């Protein structure tokens, strides 16, 4: 077992930014907009670093796919405690159409190349909310998956994962190598400390091309149109329960 | 960039924050009481963004400071002010990140960063709470003085605990009878064997009574600056006592007390540098202190500009939002311009000090004078733009105004800054 963990980190528009749709409805405005690491990816990095601190794994490798700016996101992971980074260079049209399918192909290829024992991802990205990459990566590798993890512990070469599901909490035991996707309550990500930020400067980030990994980036999905959510309409106040039932029937709700 | 605790996750636990998120994501203009203390951790206004011109590493430092300010300080800023709480635990958390001795050398636990890095960090932290950040900057100044002018034993004894904020520090120069005329101080330190016996009192000491390490300027020799030495006095030393806690207009998250010496015996080994070097040490500390205080003013002004902008976009009068009013548009533009001008001066002064440039002292004085004055006016204008709401303690802008008002007075009044600058201009050969 290599003791190596791959952590995927995605650069997304910062959660606090007011999202604006482009005038041509082809997407959202990203130029000049503040970006940062996807919050669920931060939780994933934190979990990986925690496992390393417990000496259950040996090396944390942060991976990000995108243009030059993706390196900032990798640097943040390094400042949090990752050991080295891999920047998979995807630019231009390829980057615009980059989705979970392509990213999972990339991660699967890297996992094999790096002989990873574990892949930890955020459960979803806050820009597309797909919640697919973890599951697809596991499928491509034919590895077990522990998604929506709120607790992860290692027992020998097995992984105990507590999953947050609609009905409550589900506990599963899976073999490694495996893919885990981090949910909100898995941990509280640490702040990078000033010394760690400075140490991160010396950590290496390798540049990789998707072509070198044998990955085809063609998208099977075409975005037709992006719109703002509809403006909330004013509601109507009703006096009695009968009125309410009547209105619900009128609008076809019941 | 690091966000230590996914903010939107807090939305699930804190309804008032989810209210703000609803505003952001639903793109609705809602006239609500702005939740006090939720200052956006990522100031997004393009032309006044504080991150322009910085290196990637500096941007990382800044982001950590912004996140810490938004998560750990801003939510408590009002409470700390109203209840006069000295937030020891929060400051120790800041110290864990390296904020306890930012420009102290790493061999004694400091972060070893530059004056410019420090200015950037304090500017960002200040958006979360000016008063607490200002105290942290004073603490940093004291730690630096011991680091720079102390011998090996003193550095090893005091600096590590100060850098972790296991212990807190206070800077003691001002006395009831000597403020601007600092060199006329009267606290005496009479040499008796291997101790100095201190008699006298210091006024307006930030942290006084709650802190552990006091860096005290006192008279060991004759009159004037050359008779002053710098001694480190530890809390608990017999003869060291404190006055009542002062009631202040702002800076309420740090206690301010008189520090009283009555036959207080301090070991000679606690003297920083040589006898007669104390005034020089004090002034060198203040050069950096002035940049730090000016940086705190910058943070407050930036936060206030954002609050004012948000209010103008939401508040409607005469059938349209205030943001359509040309006077207010122009006023906002002037505020932004003066903020950026102040920031440039402060950062240039920080660079000059770091490089040991000849103009460093003057530049630090100019930057402190300009930035503290301009930033107070900016915060005050921002309050005015809020109308009646600006006067309510439910809104953060009044706290920024109250907290930074004192920056025009301490660490050298802005009048003294003019003295330093004019002296430089008129006595240069």
From TrEMBL, chain A:
<dbReference type="InterPro" id="IPR000049">
    <property type="entry name" value="ET-Flavoprotein_bsu_CS"/>
</dbReference>
<dbReference type="InterPro" id="IPR033948">
    <property type="entry name" value="ETF_beta_N"/>
</dbReference>
<dbReference type="Pfam" id="PF01012">
    <property type="entry name" value="ETF"/>
</dbReference>
<dbReference type="InterPro" id="IPR014730">
    <property type="entry name" value="ETF_a/b_N"/>
</dbReference>
<comment type="similarity">
    <text>Belongs to the ETF beta-subunit/FixA family.</text>
</comment>
<keyword id="KW-0813">Transport</keyword>
<comment type="function">
    <text>The electron transfer flavoprotein serves as a specific electron acceptor for several dehydrogenases, including five acyl-CoA dehydrogenases, glutaryl-CoA and sarcosine dehydrogenase. It transfers the electrons to the main mitochondrial respiratory chain via ETF-ubiquinone oxidoreductase (ETF dehydrogenase).</text>
</comment>
<protein>
    <recommendedName>
        <fullName>Electron transfer flavoprotein subunit beta</fullName>
    </recommendedName>
</protein>
<dbReference type="GO" id="GO:0005759">
    <property type="term" value="C:mitochondrial matrix"/>
</dbReference>
<comment type="subunit">
    <text>Heterodimer of an alpha and a beta subunit.</text>
</comment>
<dbReference type="InterPro" id="IPR014729">
    <property type="entry name" value="Rossmann-like_a/b/a_fold"/>
</dbReference>
<dbReference type="GO" id="GO:0033539">
    <property type="term" value="P:fatty acid beta-oxidation using acyl-CoA dehydrogenase"/>
</dbReference>
<dbReference type="GO" id="GO:0009055">
    <property type="term" value="F:electron transfer activity"/>
</dbReference>
<keyword id="KW-0496">Mitochondrion</keyword>
<dbReference type="InterPro" id="IPR012255">
    <property type="entry name" value="ETF_b"/>
</dbReference>
<dbReference type="GO" id="GO:0045251">
    <property type="term" value="C:electron transfer flavoprotein complex"/>
</dbReference>
<comment type="function">
    <text>Heterodimeric electron transfer flavoprotein that accepts electrons from several mitochondrial dehydrogenases, including acyl-CoA dehydrogenases, glutaryl-CoA and sarcosine dehydrogenase. It transfers the electrons to the main mitochondrial respiratory chain via ETF-ubiquinone oxidoreductase. Required for normal mitochondrial fatty acid oxidation and normal amino acid metabolism. ETFB binds an AMP molecule that probably has a purely structural role.</text>
</comment>
<dbReference type="GO" id="GO:0009063">
    <property type="term" value="P:amino acid catabolic process"/>
</dbReference>
<keyword id="KW-0249">Electron transport</keyword>
<feature type="domain" description="Electron transfer flavoprotein alpha/beta-subunit N-terminal">
    <location>
        <begin position="25"/>
        <end position="217"/>
    </location>
</feature>
<comment type="subunit">
    <text>Heterodimer composed of ETFA and ETFB. Identified in a complex that contains ETFA, ETFB and ETFRF1. Interacts with ACADM.</text>
</comment>
Automatic annotation (TrEMBL), chain B:
<dbReference type="InterPro" id="IPR013786">
    <property type="entry name" value="AcylCoA_DH/ox_N"/>
</dbReference>
<dbReference type="InterPro" id="IPR006089">
    <property type="entry name" value="Acyl-CoA_DH_CS"/>
</dbReference>
<protein>
    <recommendedName>
        <fullName>Isobutyryl-CoA dehydrogenase, mitochondrial</fullName>
        <ecNumber>1.3.8.5</ecNumber>
    </recommendedName>
</protein>
<dbReference type="InterPro" id="IPR037069">
    <property type="entry name" value="AcylCoA_DH/ox_N_sf"/>
</dbReference>
<dbReference type="GO" id="GO:0003853">
    <property type="term" value="F:short-chain 2-methyl fatty acyl-CoA dehydrogenase activity"/>
</dbReference>
<keyword id="KW-0560">Oxidoreductase</keyword>
<dbReference type="InterPro" id="IPR009075">
    <property type="entry name" value="AcylCo_DH/oxidase_C"/>
</dbReference>
<dbReference type="GO" id="GO:0050660">
    <property type="term" value="F:flavin adenine dinucleotide binding"/>
</dbReference>
<dbReference type="InterPro" id="IPR009100">
    <property type="entry name" value="AcylCoA_DH/oxidase_NM_dom_sf"/>
</dbReference>
<keyword id="KW-0101">Branched-chain amino acid catabolism</keyword>
<dbReference type="Pfam" id="PF02771">
    <property type="entry name" value="Acyl-CoA_dh_N"/>
</dbReference>
<dbReference type="InterPro" id="IPR036250">
    <property type="entry name" value="AcylCo_DH-like_C"/>
</dbReference>
<dbReference type="InterPro" id="IPR052547">
    <property type="entry name" value="Mito_Isobutyryl-CoADH"/>
</dbReference>
<dbReference type="InterPro" id="IPR046373">
    <property type="entry name" value="Acyl-CoA_Oxase/DH_mid-dom_sf"/>
</dbReference>
<feature type="domain" description="Acyl-CoA dehydrogenase/oxidase C-terminal">
    <location>
        <begin position="276"/>
        <end position="426"/>
    </location>
</feature>
<comment type="similarity">
    <text>Belongs to the acyl-CoA dehydrogenase family.</text>
</comment>
<dbReference type="GO" id="GO:0009083">
    <property type="term" value="P:branched-chain amino acid catabolic process"/>
</dbReference>
<dbReference type="GO" id="GO:0005739">
    <property type="term" value="C:mitochondrion"/>
</dbReference>
<keyword id="KW-0285">Flavoprotein</keyword>
<dbReference type="InterPro" id="IPR006091">
    <property type="entry name" value="Acyl-CoA_Oxase/DH_mid-dom"/>
</dbReference>
<dbReference type="Pfam" id="PF02770">
    <property type="entry name" value="Acyl-CoA_dh_M"/>
</dbReference>
<dbReference type="InterPro" id="IPR034178">
    <property type="entry name" value="IBD"/>
</dbReference>
